Amino acid sequence: MRPAPAWGGARWIGAGLLVAGLGLLSWWSTPASRAQSLPATVLSIGDGDTLRVRQGARTATVRLACIDAPELAQEPYGQQARRYLQQRLPIGAPVTLEIKATDRYGRLVAEVIGEINIGLALVEDGQAFAYRQYLSQCDARAYLDAEFRASRHRFGIWQLPGGITRPWAFRRSGLRP
Predict the structure, then answer these.
(1) What sign for the dihedral angle of Cα 99, 70, 89, 51?
(2) DSSP 8-state assignment for residue 30
(3) Are 94 and 41 in contact (CB under 8 A)?
(4) Pick the catalytic residue: 34, 52, 71, 88?
(5) 17 or 120, greater pLDDT
(6) Structural domains for the chain
(7) Which end of the chain is more exposed for a tag (fewer CB within 10 A), N or C?
């Protein structure tokens, strides 16, 4: 069983895209931008599956594609996933965005590649679930195999038999603060 990092951090409250009037959303949403890899720099980590990046002069919120990390209110797992992401993608780290879509909140949905595919690493290390509803955008087999290995080894969210309440079920339950 892998121990979670022991250091904490302040809770980040997302404000969505703060770039109204810059045309960022339309620039990111073009089919051409989705078809290519875009270099970016990490500005901050929101939770276990959300971060802010700068790409040139543009700033955007990115939701990691094909995974769902525990909500911050799902103690202690949400905070552990956030700390894991902070450790793997420190502020200033260069990343590549493999953009899949823009979600209903205006966030980019992308696979984020630093030294590794960070979403896949989160699942492999038991910090997030493969988000089956959206796996068609990614290498589904890789994410499902990573989740299986994490559950078999009882890493992170798999410490409880069967894993913790899935984040999508937790959000639907209305238990969020």
Answers:
(1) positive
(2) S
(3) yes
(4) 71
(5) 120
(6) 24-172 (2.40.50.90)
(7) C
Q: To the nearest whole number, what is the mean pLDDT of the chain? A: 82
Cβ atoms 41, 92 nearer than 8 A: yes
- Whether residue 151 is predicted with pLDDT greater than 70 in this model: the reply is yes
Clarify whether 63 is annotated catalytic.
Answer: yes
pLDDT at 175: 62
Rounded average pLDDT over 83-90: 96
The answer to whether residue 107 is catalytic is yes
24 vs 144, higher pLDDT: 144
Please give the residue that has the higher pLDDT: either 174 or 117. Answer: 117
Q: Which amino acid is at 67?
A: I
Instruction: Given the residues 52, 63, 82, 88, select the one marked as catalytic.
Output: 63
Picking from 168, 38, 13, 47, the residue whose alpha carbon sits closest to that of residue 108 is 38
- Strands, E, within the chain: which ranges? 37-47, 50-55, 58-64, 67-68, 94-102, 108-113, 129-130
As given in the structure block, the two tokens for residue 104 are 């209903």
| pLDDT per residue as tens digits for the range 104-127 | 999 999 999 999 999 999 999 999
CB atoms within 10 A of CB 57: 8
| H helix runs in the chain, sequence order | 24-29, 31-34, 77-88, 118-124, 140-153, 167-173
